[in-house]
């Protein structure tokens, strides 16, 4: 993970990030690329809270791109897992899906959408 600015808050043992940029590899050559305007890393470093303009992108071996956008997301890098309770939009696979809340199992490329799920897809 890289960031334009890193500030450690000693009182809470939290690290504040400006424009964090994270690549999560799932054992292959096609990583998930995670970005946001701000972020906070927990004291143990096992949890990253991404805040404002969160974007998660991946292109697979067939050159298909999946883009997930939301306003806030919690990422657990070691578990290759992410979650949000906010509105989420997924662009990919010939369509757009929106929902309220998501659990993303990045290692398995599986996403559970929690409520208000809507999809719009192109006919082939």
UniProtKB/TrEMBL annotation:
Q: Provide this UniProt record's keywords sorted from A to Z.
A: Cell inner membrane, Cell membrane, Membrane, Transmembrane, Transmembrane helix
- Which top-level group of life is the source organism from? Bacteria
One protein family per Pfam: LptC
InterPro entries assigned to the protein according to its UniProt record, in alphabetical order:
LipoPS_assembly_LptC-rel, LPS_export_LptC, LptC
Membrane-crossing ranges are none
| GO terms of molecular function | glycolipid transfer activity; lipopolysaccharide transmembrane transporter activity
How is this protein annotated for GO cellular component? Answer: outer membrane-bounded periplasmic space; plasma membrane
Kindly indicate where the leader peptide sits in this chain: none
The protein's matches in NCBIfam families, at most eight in alphabetical order, are given as:
LptC_YrbK
What is the name attached to this protein's record?
A: Lipopolysaccharide export system protein LptC
Its source organism is Pseudomonas amygdali pv. tabaci
Source organism lineage?
A: Bacteria, Pseudomonadati, Pseudomonadota, Gammaproteobacteria, Pseudomonadales
